[in-house]
Amino acid sequence: MLKKFFLNLLSSFVGAWIAIGLFCVVSIFVVIGVIARVGGDEETPSTKVSPKSVLMLDLSGTIVETPEAGQFDFMSLAMGDSNDGPMALNVIINGIREGKESDDIDAMYIKCGHPLASPATLNAIRQAIADFKKSGKKVYAYADAMTMGDYFVASQADSLFLNPGGMIEISGLGGTTLFYKDFLDKIGVKMTLVKVGTFKSAAEPYISNQMSAPARAQLDTLYGNMWSYIGEAVAEGRRSLNKGSLNKAADEFIVFQTPHSVLRQGFVDKLAYERQMDDIVGRIVGKEGKDVRYYTPETLAENSSWGKEYGNKNLVAVLYATGEIQEHSKTGIDCYRLVPQITELADDDNVKALVLRVNSPGGSVFGSEQIGEALDYFKSKGKPFVVSMGDYAASGGYWISCTADKIYADPLTITGSIGIFGLFPSAEGLVKKLGITPQTVSTNPGKDISLFNDPTAEQLDVLQSYINDGYSRFVKRVAKGRKMKEQRVRQIAEGRVYDAGQAKSLNLVDELGSLDDAVRYAVLKAGLKSDKYGVAVYPKYKPDFWDILRAQGFDKLNQEIAKIAGETPESILVYESARILRRSPWQALMPPMTLRFN
Question: Which residue numbers are catalytic?
């Protein structure tokens, strides 16, 4: 019995290691094909599109602003999963644009699947679909189950199909804030807030157990205005609905109504199973369903030169500033990486204009100020500077935007929040609970803000003075950039957030429009001829090794390796161990704050 056990154990491990050996052999052939691309800067080769083809837009998963290098998952290899990573908004828009202009793309098919994105991102896709339809090409959409995000985008389709066993979730717009004060009190941690701005509520969860009246009031107005826009946009796309249809559907829990009821109310056009959609789409392009060729926006974007024309002598640089503004960070907007990039673009004679694409809720005051100064340097070169706002361009995100020659915002952008705060923790109560007594020796006792003591009244006065000075610099910058009086800026600032429509009426935004609109204005402002300029995206996206393997058809390799290795505990153990060993030992993660459909 013992001998049999050891023989089985030995054979399991031998099998796993043979699988790894085969993986290495097969990988060599794949690696040879991609090494040159990893080390080089050549463009992705174009894809030949078959006549009478269809653009397939798969609305599922996370949508980010611009491509991000993927992370290879060894466990996914063992299980045969593709691990595709998030979709990029600029690639989706570029692919839809290319599909509109291609003589070989005759229609678009939207497959709904719960996109994880903020309303402004979804609106940008919706508007790109509306532009695609101007070519006269049909757009069909299908869903097994449709979320509000799906429906917002798919409402632009000429025909909307729902599975006979499916459902539609029509919900309002909102967000949930967790308040931690009672929890902090229980563990003996106190947070001291120093701020400027009645509506500056980002730190409220740490000093209160409920939302303040000003904070609730601004969110009521913000969500109400955005929801009104969404209702009008859906009604525009769905002629069978009116502006109040979404509210009525949300109030009546349409998600629990039958598909036939949804059909009668005009929310969809027809009921069909997914297997029938190939034939339905095929009739648009004059093909049998089995013969229809589908191309993704990512594939079509490979055929476009937009964003890749780095060698052009008349260049419009599109620079992405996405995430929280920080210092010395590998994520978000690191001022120590972004400032040199801005300076380099300013000094590049080929760069005639800059479009800063901002999608940021703000962050570090220091980082915002450094980026703002670099943008001032760019303007000093006499080159146009234009801003295009994404989901958010608030607080520090507005700090870096406000001096632009012109600011464009999506109608569902959240902006403003002109205010500053400081949050200082004290663990005095916690250390007492733990039986710890801190003892400090200092040449200047009482002058340092300590983690183990609450700030004194004198210290709070100094901190408030520092915050007031930062706020004054913020106000002055906005006043100068927007050509407003400081008194007027202070009236509309106070840390209040606005939807883009409100911001436009307050002169915080110039136009409601897309990134393409911002680029067109930059071209005009720079005096460039419409057919004599190029667009280049920065920072340059350089796919890592695993991204290129995936692009070379590595999904198929995954599947073959999974067949060889199987899903035995031993093989999974080997692959998972390798994955763990490859991970960085230092990680600090926090969930992003997002606005969502309820």
Answer: 395, 447
